[in-house]
Amino acid sequence: MEKISVIIDGKTLHAVKDRCVLQVARENGIYIPSLCYNSEVESSGGSCRVCLVEAHQGGRMRLVTSCNYPVRAGLEVKTDTPLVRRIRRGVLELLLARVPDSEVIREMAAREGVTEVRFRRDEGENERYKCIACALCTHVCAEVVGVHAIAMTERGADKKPATPYHKPSEVCIGCGACAYACPTGAITMKETDGVRRIWGKDFPMVRCSVCGAPHIPEAQVDWIVKRTGKDRAFFDKCPDHR
Amino acid sequence: MGAINSIEQLESYRRELASKVRADLPTVMVCFGTGCQANGSRLVAEAFMRVIEEQGLKVGVNLGIKTTGCHGYCENGPLVALKPQDLLYLKVKPEDVAEIVEETVKGGRVVERLVYRDKITEELVARYSEIPFYKHQHRIALRHIGTIDPTSIDDYILVGGYSGLAKALTMKPEELISEVERSGLRGRGGGGFPTGTKWRSCAAVDSDVRYVMCNGDEGDPGAFMDRSIMEGDPHSVIEGMIIGALAVGSHQGYIYVRDEYPLAVKNLTSALEAAREKGFLGPDILGSGFAFDIKISRGGGAFVCGESSALMRSVEGNVGEPRAKYIRSVERGLYNRPTVLNNVETWANVPEIILKGADWYAGMGTERSKGTKVFSLVGKVNNTGLVEVPMGITIRELVENIGGGVLGGKRFKAVQTGGPSGGCIPERLADLPIDFDSLTEAGSMMGSGGIIVMDEDTCMVDVARYFTAFLVEESCGKCTPCRDGLPRMLDLLNDITEGRGGDEHVAMLEELCDLLTWGALCGLGTSAANPVLSTIKYFREEYDAHIKERRCPAGVCKALITYSIDAEACTGCRLCAKKCPQECISGERKKPHVIDTTRCIKCGVCKDVCAYDAVRVS
Amino acid sequence: MVEVSVFDRIIERYERSEESLLAILQDFQREFHYVPEEGIRRLSEVLRVPESKIYAMGTFYKALSLTPRGRHVVKVCTGTACHLKGAPQILEALERELGVKRNGTTEDGEYTLECVNCVGACAMAPVTLVDEEYHGQTRASKVMDIIRKRTEE
């Protein structure tokens, strides 16, 4: 791995070439807000725009998303200029107008001094109450889990993750990875009496043979067994009792 | 005949075609562009066939007939051009055909009522090349349109087609690239990026696979030059792409065509087949050993797919969402391979540049914008259609000399250029020479060359609202500023045009514009502010009139206008009363009528049907 | 319910690659006047592409419709030139006369009213399309006559 040096907020840092600015900043304790990016998910990032920073290179300045802008030799990044703060505040105000009930957005916006929305509130449907349409859930489902149960549908302000025809998905395994990854907690996943409900579908859970706690959906076990050839008996016990 | 296997064979084939053509043979050319077909040109062509069949035997008239692509003067269609007389007949109907054959073809006389009549001087102009609309033009990209049959490859070869390719096959890739660089050709799709530089960057990337693509997703409303070229001269685009492929070393090309252009898809498809058959495409082009072929990809009705990265995603079979261009498509484009993407008009220029040389092309235009540009001159102007002129012509020359001035003698207010990414340029800047840089400096953009003329009846706030609504509908929704910022901008503009605007509205609009310009992911979003910012900049007084006086000076914004009938002009013909959907117009026959404004829905039907211009909007 | 073989006949016209997805969906649209759910499912099976992805395309591209359209599709061009020359009045007149909003289909399934962002026939503005046939210089007061004449033929 080729190492290069970059300047972030005046500090010279050594970093792996082509790693994204956001990761390098995080490794060095520099805060840049971020929502739609997850370093484990290759195609994530680039959509929420809260991580915009100034990139100075070759005598040129651009505002770039730090989550997918690669570090190269000679790059200087500024994460806290008046321009960065102005645009970041603008993005957060729009997100707040969209999902005023999201604690994550409220906190992040407050940190930037945005507590009120001057724009008309988005009168969206309930299902996207906290959804900022960042697509991370769909990337996780497709790339990490590999089942492609959900995708980003519609366009413009109506963009939202959904199963085909908003019906219970035939391929969803109820793993909940989408819900864990969602930055704003917009995907509801509920468990009652050993049944998990997510994306409008019920998934009976396997109960631990030791403690009796439901710990993994049967459909997910089927999927893992089919994909990896792992012994089904492995899932008889929950992670705590294996 | 089958494939042509060498440059020599191409030339002998061309000579053979030429020997069969009789220069003295009169030919009628019926325009088969989308516009003329809509006006019934198919029936006109059929009438000619019938007359020729009936009379040809009897009187011995030998008349060739062919159907051509769009002349770009669609408003006056169906258009019929006649050779060798160099005549252009406008608005030809099937019933005119017998007379044209009798008078013009046999008798050599002009049928005056079908001839162009200048709207101001009333002068009749029969010769095609003398009509003001065409006289000032210099056609390169449109060189064959209206004179050749786009469905006949022989027609294209006869006028010198594929000789640019033949020459290119004798040149090294490096020579081709530097020729295009020296020509100064810049991308005609909007951005104006230097074409040669793009080719060079692509060729420099180490890769075994490269793609050459044509952007035919002409989405800017008001621009239709690419449609005209794809429909009317598809081989010029194909030839340009083959030359581009030779230059960068590509073996596979793609043409992405808008779904709204079915005739373009049809003509391109048949042109590709013909080119394959003749050996201009395939494993061994003109016996040179060079292999290249082209696929057509149909768009699906999404404006954002005109953006290069979204277009490539769409071709790959995905939703057309753009992605960050921190790595350029010349390095990682289609399927992450180095890709050259140029638009239709750019490709159509390439064969001529190779054939006639960079110096010839660079001799036209302005210092930084070389060559000619096709503009679609539409809106409130007398002569609407496609116009190709050297870069650097002024807006005023375009509107007044070629366009024949503003429709109905109204006051010329502004032109809109660049579609939803462009802006409005006021009349006081109409002496601005049109090139890539001057339009950008004025807060607009060249875009694909749509020039939409606006008059005193155009409300500039409504124009800003119109483009913002367009973009709200076309935003892909991937990034926050565009997805959530544009609807908020539209809310504000709706407030203003509906009489709810407050003092803070313009400032908030400007703030959102700033956010989009800096924060959006792709060009659709970063340029989305232009229609709003340019109208605020040049027409602030109209915003103020809407906000402070609750008045729409142009009489467009429905919430701020009332309809009434001018008692002096009204003849009491009853037509408006009959047509009013609300039945809220009353009055006796031959006496002035009155509109009940409490029930009026301002649909405009009364104004539309009134033959005496008695309906007033205030 | 459409027979699977009908979808297969369309799918077979194209290369078995993701590149063909949009073209196949458009052919479905032309054949059935919308993209049926079973068609998306079949396409997913044959091309081995996730159904969620094809469904997403169906919702993204305006040329595709996931619900049946009317027997006749009336499109009002809302390009800039048409807008300036009266497209909003034409759209309103059609909404009023047909009793549907844009993108709506009349109750009897006869007409679907749509808008299209420029058909590139700006020199004939304002343009209305009735079943893909272009009508230039249309006027709000006359547009219904054109539609009736055209669809009653």
Distance between the termini of chain A: 38 Å
Number of domains of chain C: 2
Annotated CATH homologous superfamily of the largest domain in chain C = Glutaredoxin
Query: Which quaternary structure do these chains form?
Result: heterotrimer
The 3D shape of chain A can be described as: globular
**Average pLDDT across residues of chain C?**
93
CATH class annotation of the largest domain in chain C: Alpha Beta
Rounded to an integer in angstroms, the radius of gyration calculated over CA atoms of chain C is 17 Å
Order of helices and strands of chain A: EEHEEEHHHEEHEEEEH
Numbering strands along the chain, what is their spatial order in the largest sheet of chain C? 2-1-3-4
Q: Helicity of chain C, in percent? A: 40-55%
List keywords for this structure.
heterotrimer, A: Ubiquitin-like (UB roll), 5-stranded mixed β-sheet, 11 strands, 24% helix, C: 153 residues, alpha+beta, Glutaredoxin, 4-stranded mixed β-sheet, 7 helices
Give structural notes:
The complex is a heterotrimer of chains A (242), B (618) and C (153). By secondary structure, chain A is α+β, with helices and mostly antiparallel strands. Chain A has helices at 21-27, 82-98, 103-111, 136-145, 177-181, 218-228; strands spanning 3-8, 11-16, 52-57, 60-65, 76-78, 151-153, 160-162, 189-192, 195-198, 201-207, 214-217. Chain A contains 6 helices and 11 strands. The model of chain A has no long low-confidence stretch (mean pLDDT 94). Chain B has 5 domains: 7-130, Glutaredoxin; 153-362, 3-Layer(aba) Sandwich (Rossmann fold); 372-458, Roll (Ubiquitin-like (UB roll)), CATH 3.10.20; 461-548, Up-down Bundle (de novo design (two linked rop proteins)), CATH 1.20.1440; 562-617, Alpha-Beta Plaits, CATH 3.30.70.20. In chain B, a hairpin with a 5-residue loop joins strand 13 and strand 14 (423-426). The mean pLDDT of chain B is 93. Chain C is of the alpha+beta class and 153 residues long. Chain C has 2 domains: 4-60, no CATH class; 72-152, 3-Layer(aba) Sandwich (Glutaredoxin), CATH 3.40.30. Helix content of chain C is 44%, strand content 12%. Chain C has 7 helices and 4 strands, in the order ααααβααβββα. In chain C, strand 3 (128-130) and strand 4 (133-135) form a beta hairpin. Chains in contact: A-B, A-C, B-C.
